[in-house]
Design a protein that fits this description.
Keywords: Membrane, Transmembrane, Transmembrane helix. By secondary structure, the chain is mainly alpha-helical. The protein contains 4 helices and no strands.
Length: 158
Amino acid sequence: MKRGSTLFLKMAVILMGIPVLAIGVYGLLFLANNPVNPTYAYILYPIIIGIYVTIIPFYFGLYQAFKLLTYIDKNEAFSELSVHALKKIKYCAVAISAVYVAVLPFVYIVAELDDAPGLIFMGMIPILASMVIAVFAAVLEKLVINAIDIKSENELTV
C-alpha cells in the first residue's frame, strides 16, 4: 500500500489532538480560575480533574491509532501488532467512559443547582461517544483476528 494513502488519516489524528491540548492547557485552567458562579466552584473541581484524567488515555489511544495507520502503511494491517493496537484503543475508550461515569454525579449536582437539565445530557455525550469507539474497536479487533486466521489457513494450503 502506498504511504500517502493513510497520510490524510494520520493528519486527522494529529488534528484531533490539538484542540484537546488547547482546551486542557487554556480552557480548563481558565474555567478553574474563573467559574461562572463562584458558589458552585467546589463542584467544578472534580469535573475538571476528571477531564484532565481522561486526557491521558485519549492521547494514548491517538498514539495507538497512529501506530495502527503506520502498520497499514507497512502492509502489516492483518498482524498481531494491529490486534494489540486495537485492543489498547478499546481499553482507552472504556477508561475514558469510566472516568466520565464517575464524574457524572457532579455534573448532575451542577445541573440541579443551575436548573439546567440539558447539562446532564451534555455530560453523557463523552460516555456514549467513547463506548461507541470501544465497540467499534472490539468489532475491528475480531475482524482482524478472523482475517489473520483465514490468512494463516491459506498460507498452509498448497
